[in-house]
Structure prediction request, 355 residues.
Amino acid sequence: MSLIHLQNLEFQRAGSSFRLGPLSLELAAGSRTALVGPSGCGKSTLLRILAGLETPTGGVVVIDGKEASVAGAVKIAPNARGMGLVFQDGALWPHMTALEHLRFVAPELSKDDAKALLARVGLDGKEQRRPGKLSGGEMQRLALARALAREPEVLLLDEPLASVDVHLRDDLALLVRKIAEESGLSLVVVTHDREEALAMADDVVVLHQGQVVERGSAADLIDAPKTAFSARFLAHAACLELEHLGGGRVRSAFGEHELPAGSGQGDEHVLAILPGDAAIGVNGDAVAFEATVTQVRPDAFGNRYAMILVDGRSLFVPCDASVRSGARVGLRLTRAPRILPAGAAFGDQHGGSPA
Prediction:
């Protein structure tokens, strides 16, 4: 049975053109889910609706079989939902020590237990420090400890690593996941960063303009996205326009391709090329066309990529140290073409980095 069930959920704030939903989702007990998408797509709003801090204008939120929110009303108060929330900016109280934060939200927590929880999140020996005396990463650890103090069943995190130094993010992401696994917590993480999503979640829900674009396991959405938007946002794909030739055939810079079976006559598609789907030709390889390398850059793990503009889209191709910016190279596909539905994302295909 699902722990959280959203049925035809909608939200629209008065005076705003933004609309969330209608959407339906099930989040199983013990699951670890990332809500990902660009700024303004509705991720944080959806999280606040789950927490009971926003009221849906349509649909229903069901938690453990009970209606928690319905259109126009919050039926179960935020503090009675069994959820802990970590805000993006921490939302800590500047006048309270770390120990006081925990015992304020959980008065039944003994001093020793509060100290043990602080030690668990890496704040051992810093019980008497106020937020102003903590680093950005330490403040987020305190926010995490505060959210855990009441022993929630669900942990909600809104961009939890946004204020943490880059070199500390992996450690904090792994800590969150470790605590969730050891405690049997359900996780719902809002992020626009795919690395955060992969580090903390097993299941990914992709949002765009208030709608669910795609949902699946983190591995599947990275390796085999089914929509152009997911391919670009999660997998750093270049999504190239296609010229329709008729008879279910299309053409891109890489040659002619067949549309997927069942494609409608007016359906828009793109050729999505993920890093690794194309290669630089060597030793007489047959290539589709030649292009100029715009830039060579490493990813976070030291792998080198040549960035090449193809039809105005940034294509990332693995390369070795012999490839330099400005070089003229031949390109070929290394796998069967990914012809994906363009959807609403087609006009928003800005290049990303595999880093």
Q: What stands out?
A: Residues 345-355 have pLDDT under 50 and may be disordered. The longest helix spans residues 166-183. The longest strand covers residues 2-11.
